């Protein structure tokens, strides 16, 4: 135990000073010659390639000169070789059987293989694998080639994408397919650089995934799973969203990728983060690279120090304190949390809370329409949030609710002509004391809506907006309004459930269905309490 105490003060300190001096020299050389230093393990310390677009030269030098301890790097090729072999061996035995992997592995045509990978990578952005599987299968059945997708309508794309979330992804995927077919001779670019430069909606990660998996280019990728793996393996505690840390992670990914099996390696790194090196309760005992994991080593050292009941606990992390605060270490204001273990890495990024908006929305229905009851839907603009999707008529209102009824009625009449204003019913709002407004009754049954719904409003959180819908209903009796504008249409209830509508609209309709005469007990389709919708949705919502 005495040796453990002395090592950080003496041997480690001397080594850190030596490393810091060497590091500073390499950085100086890199800045003066604009060339990467020799050696696979030292090149990453002084130079960080591929700066983000728009980064000024002055900012570039700040990134290059920032102190980074070799402790956070891979120091020799032997360590890299062990990492590659261990990870790929594990992947060969443990990888999940996923439809896009089967599609890519069994496809000999490179363009079709690239398309299969492209679709899966776009769908998997911010969306869980379990959610994507059915969408991917239906997509590839409907549009098995780039040419098929290019000839589809945006309406068809939105309809199939409905419920998957982040709807601009589907639109951009189709735009990319059309560009390949119409401008690139039907051939997908083969390198990450040309993929990112030529195809709309293809960023650095997607380009690297397609290039490595479909075309075998030795290029690394960094997604959320890879960020977590690399931050733990190299004990990187600084903000992973910062420019310096982000570029260091990309540099590490490029350094580690196996040139013989780049696609498998990248998928293995992502698989490890998704199934073993998870955000909470990681399965460290099942990790194929645990012997190289600095986060795991730090946990073991902290446990050893704590078991000895040392009075002055020592931070034995091998870093470079004599050249200033290491830019890859956690800041001093965020001390080690013993209860988290390896989950201390990566550092949790503070996110800006979504802005809050309120909307009054109305389900306008013709219960006695020929062919069955119909509801009115209008199409959103072709740009912005939920572009091109269909929704119930709505208006943005103040949370206070003043004048929302009048504004909503005007919006409805602009689409459907004159309407009986007295039949526009607000479906109620629970007050702080559990009461409801005087119009809060379910059909003809004089029972408060709060007895059916914990909170008769729909709250839906998008990526950057928390939108509260005040839901209204208007059922027409013996009146068939004529829609005078394009961009609106009447659908049966069955057609609604297969239309290109967002998850939020389905929530609104479920609420409306549950409060109609004869449906107060609600069908299985309607049995989704609004309280559940208050929970933060999955990334695909």
Explain the overall architecture.
- The chain is α+β, with helices and mostly antiparallel strands and 541 residues long.
- The chain is globular, with a radius of gyration of 28 Å.
- It is 43% helix and 10% strand.
- The strands form two sheets. Strands 1, 2, 3, 4, 5, 8, 9 and 10 form an eight-stranded mixed β-sheet that branches.
- It contains 21 helices and ten strands.
Provide a compact summary of the structure:
By secondary structure, the chain is an alpha+beta fold. The chain has helices at 2-9, 11-33, 43-46, 57-65, 77-94, 99-105, 110-124, 129-142, 146-150, 154-161, 168-183, 192-198, 204-215, 224-233, 243-256, 262-275, 294-307, 404-416, 493-498, 503-513, 530-534, and strands at 355-366, 374-379, 390-391, 394-397, 425-426, 441-442, 445-448, 458-461, 465-475, 488-492.
